[in-house]
Amino acid sequence: MEMNIKFPVIDLSKLNGEERDQTMALIDDACQNWGFFELVNHGLPYDLMDNIERMTKEHYKKHMEQKFKEMLRSKGLDTLETEVEDVDWESTFYLRHLPQSNLYDIPDMSNEYRLAMKDFGKRLEILAEELLDLLCENLGLEKGYLKKVFHGTTGPTFATKLSNYPPCPKPEMIKGLRAHTDAGGLILLFQDDKVSGLQLLKDGDWVDVPPLKHSIVINLGDQLEVITNGKYKSVVHRVMTQKEGNRMSIASFYNPGSDAEISPATSLVGKDSKYPSFVFDDYMKLYAGLKFQPKEPRFEAMKNAEAAADLNPVAAVETF
């Protein structure tokens, strides 16, 4: 069942006025009850966003579309006679911003496109860190706490996944992106404002994330659920295919550094911790093979690894 209920849209400019308390409460409610919210008046220049949308769609048409069609043929997906559950109907490439950029290693990007994405990435990095401090304020954590946890010894990891979801002749047979939660920290999405498809699971029902022009959709990853001891949640989401329209998605992932030590914040634990402590890179190794499965067994596996390490650190390292 798919529900049409009011998705949380937050005007970030209201943090600077008389409605600050109300706006902070909306963010807190969205983090607790949705795991998602949509930002407007976020400070990112609209002309930059428009240029990036144009260049991303041009790049797909010129350099990615034919490769996508070839992939469909190679996997027998050009006919879609039966339902497909192990492949996604998407065309993607990745940019890494932190700790070291690969922007100039990506083939076929124009210099204008590279410079725009470099600017956009830096602005999103700043926005992500501002949002983490807002979350700290709502959680009663000291300012900078989440940034410090994410930092590890070499700083956070920050990357962008640029995706196109082309028209699909039989949307009922395949998903654009299968249902999952995100492994990392804070995700900032610039999505197509004309072609929809992103849905989240709320109270057992699929809810559309509305495509609003010039908005940035925020969602929380598994690490924030762990650090907040479950007060804030990562939420299952998916992308539906559409018969018409090519949906653009630019998702930027502000994640902990690979050696960051993740654990529930002491002030949020209370009597006991619901979640394990672990090194972020260890979680990512586990996630790589279990992305499209429920998150709870991942948390349990990390708990078991933590218990094994307490008993026999050497054996745990060798067998993890």
TrEMBL record:
Its EC number(s): 1.14.17.4
Domain of life from the UniProt record: Eukaryota
Xref: Pfam families: 2OG-FeII_Oxy, DIOX_N
GO molecular function: 1-aminocyclopropane-1-carboxylate oxidase activity; dioxygenase activity; L-ascorbic acid binding; metal ion binding
InterPro entries given in the database record: DIOX_N, IPNS-like_FE2OG_OXY, IPNS-like_sf, Oxoglu/Fe-dep_dioxygenase_dom, Plant_2OG-oxidoreductases
EC class (word): oxidoreductase
Pathway: Alkene biosynthesis; ethylene biosynthesis via S-adenosyl-L-methionine; ethylene from S-adenosyl-L-methionine: step 2/2
Residue intervals passing through the bilayer: none
Alphabetical list of PROSITE patterns matching this protein: FE2OG_OXY (PS51471)
Keyword tags: Dioxygenase, Ethylene biosynthesis, Iron, Metal-binding, Oxidoreductase, Vitamin C
Domain called Fe2OG dioxygenase: residue spans: 155-256
Family: Belongs to the iron/ascorbate-dependent oxidoreductase family.
PANTHER family linked to this entry: OXOGLUTARATE/IRON-DEPENDENT DIOXYGENASE
The protein, known as: aminocyclopropanecarboxylate oxidase
UniProt source species: Arabidopsis thaliana x Arabidopsis arenosa
